[in-house]
Amino acid sequence: MDWLYVGKIVNTHGLRGEVKVISATDFSEERFARGATLYVRNEKTDSYRPFTVKSYRRNKQFDYLTFENYDSINEIEPFKGCSLYVRKDQLSELSNGDFYYYQIIGAEVVTDTGVSLGTIKEILSPGANDVWVVKTKGKDILLPCITDVIKSVDTDQKRITVHLIPGLVDDAD
């Protein structure tokens, strides 16, 4: 079965079984919606245990979740530090031009003039648009996910063509 990483339980919050999660999913509202199924991975046995989301809220850069049948800090604390996953078959179809993070991370990035820049190593979601981080031989390049920069995305070939607008790449490197 294909598993997709969607976040990590970094701490408990309060006494009623709420957990603080650092999200790694592109659709938090859908992924962490009430009734959604998430899987907590046991690193030692490489097994996945299903959890049903009871509540979800966002505060600053963290997501806070409670799960059905886990109503106290004592019940949920053993899962602190565990990773959260979904099955690939749980993903919904996206409209044309939208992509899941897993389709972008690891893709080769080339300029519209044919220069290879590196590969996407992570995606940041700081505000109005995502920022794709390109791992290069030197400093990482931060590409805003806007139409002026991202020209084409081929998820089958894992290849992204970009146009480097002034200021994106430090010319001194």
Low-confidence stretches: none
Figure out the total of helices: 3
Helix content, binned percent: under 10%
Structural class: mainly beta
SSE order in H/E notation?
EEHEEEHEHEEEEEE
Q: Shape, please?
A: elongated
* CATH topology title of the largest domain: Elongation Factor Tu (Ef-tu), domain 3
Sheet with most strands = 6 strands, antiparallel, barrel
Could you tell me the mean pLDDT?
A: 89
In whole angstroms, the N-to-C terminal distance is 43 Å
As a percent range, the share of strand residues is over 45%
How many extended strands? Answer: 12
Per CATH, the class of the largest domain reads Mainly Beta
In short:
By secondary structure, the chain is mainly beta. It folds into two domains: 3-90, Elongation Factor Tu (Ef-tu), domain 3, CATH 2.40.30.60; 101-162, Roll (SH3 type barrels).
Could you please describe the fold and organization of this structure?
With 173 residues, this protein is mostly beta strands. The protein folds into two domains: 3-90, RimM (Elongation Factor Tu (Ef-tu), domain 3, Beta Barrel), CATH 2.40.30; 101-162, PRC-barrel domain (SH3 type barrels, Roll), CATH 2.30.30. Helix content is 7%, strand content 45%. It has helices spanning 28-31, 73-76, 101-104; strands at residues 3-13, 18-23, 37-42, 47-59, 62-67, 83-87, 108-111, 116-124, 131-135, 141-144, 150-154, 159-162. A hairpin with a 4-residue loop joins β11 (150-154) and β12. The longest helix is centred in the N-terminal third of the chain and has 4 residues, at 28-31. It starts with a strand and ends in an 11-residue tail after the last strand.
